[in-house]
Fold:
Amino acid sequence: MKTLRKRSDFVDMQKNAQTFVTPGFIVQYAPKDQQDVVVGYTASRKVGGAVQRNFAKRRMRHLARLVLAQHDPACYVLVARRDMLTLPFERLHRDLQWALRRLKGEKKDV
RNA sequence: UCAGUGAAUCGGACCGCUGCGCUUCUUUGGCGUUUGUCAGGGGGGUGAGGAAAGUCCGGGCUCUAUGAAAGGACGGUGCCAGAGAAAUUCUGGGCACAGUGAUGUGACGGCCAGUGCAACAGAAAGCAAACCGCCGAUGGUCCCUUUGGGGACACAGGUAAGGGUGAAACGGUGUGGUAAGAGCGCACCGCUGCAGGGGUAACCCGCGCAGGCACGGUAAACCCCACCGAGAGCAAGGGCAAAUAGGAACAACCGCGGGAUAAUCAGGCCCAAAGGCCCCCUUUCAGGUCCGUUGUUCGGGUAGCCCGCACGAGGAGGUCAGCAAUGGCCUUCCCAGAUGAAUAGCGGUCUCGUGGCUCCUGCGGCCAUAGACAGAACCCGGCUUAUAGAUUCACUGAAAAG
RNA sequence: GGGCCUGUAGUUCAGCGGUUAGAACGCGCCGCUCAUAACGGCGUUGUCGGGGGUUCGAAUCCCUCCGGGCCCA
Structure:
């Protein structure tokens, strides 16, 4: 599992990827021909100060390790929202699985 | 007990499983003659703060650069002594102000070097000055007269005691004095200067002597005085190996002159143009470098990776010196090094508060809940700002009791 | 991480330490018009980003905090 780092890649995802919104976060998904699962994390100033943003990223990274590691090689971006800080982890976990099922289901339909 | 002041410390602790960054040891497999290199596994160690923050000061470190002397400009600092690498730093002391007090706050040199400013109000705002008021002794005009003088007017003029204005009006009280007044005289208080005394000093005392005595405010107004000061910043700066591109470095020789750069604008992946340049300015002295020719050697920046980068004005404990800041000595420890940036998830135990419920109203029982400000980014010393709550010590005021 | 700039009516900006902080546009009301616009008249709008200090007096000088913006081999 690799981490997305370059700003240009994030901008590219913003343009081309499919998006699904949950209360705690936003998932962007683009099935590219990659060897590994590639994940990017975003926590903007809307989330809070440095402490809150780091906390949000930690939780997102943990989610990615639990869930995305088992998925197909593709490109994902997780964007934190304010409720990422307060919602119980179990809820976030469920939401991510649901979001991925919806995104991949849509893909098959198209 | 209540109210308060100052200082210091902490700012959850522990356990299990699954995970993360760095580091170290070990091991498996591939490639390779070896040094190694790529991919993976396992064990150990370690892992945010008192402010890591704001970037307000000061350094270390790095690059630019040429050193010295004199003068100037610009910026900063400003009671005294001590501490400290230094500081818009700290400690102690002095002075001023605030508070009943413990204490707190203070850019706290100089307006008798010069210049400026003070709206409105007020007569007057810095040479003093007469609006109301008081007086009118003296002079003037008039009246009366017992020829000594008396009275009226408020014209000249005198007067800073009173009123009113203002942030600010040239000492205060009393008494003498006077036409009315006034440091005009005197007494006491205050003030200024000096002798003398205390203190390292700032400064304090000043009962003795001298002076009748105002010297107004503002320098976070220009300024004067004293002292200090290159610029940029780890995105500093250095290294590695390809592609594009055709420039760069070094050495020798010739020449021996000149002192207009900075900034701005436009275009572009670049290395162009120009011929000069030497870091606030001027002068003096001494010096360096570039531009030319020839020869030799080979690239550099940007993107990526590595170094810089964590042993330091370091932490902890003890002891000695000092009122203290702090310093000396001894022992001991190695304590984050990321770069879309490492601490998460689940469960359990305890404690501090907080909230709720309950009754037997007790410093009860039960339930819930780690809950403030906040995240290292080259590193240190300060300052400032944010901060739920807890603990300790010293002191002050009030009330009550002994 | 580091370096800088800036904050005044609703908006864009003025404002040598001195009365009650101005201008333009906007906004409101009235007039003109059958009506709207234009035009004319009258009027409205500020914790001068917050706090503290210097001064008799601060938007202005000084300190500090906050917000917004820009730059980087």
Remarks:
- Residues 3-7, 10, 40-43, 49-55, 57-59, 61-63, 65-66, 89-90, 93 of chain A lie near RNA strand B (CB under 10 Å from a C1').
- The longest helix of chain A spans residues 89-109.
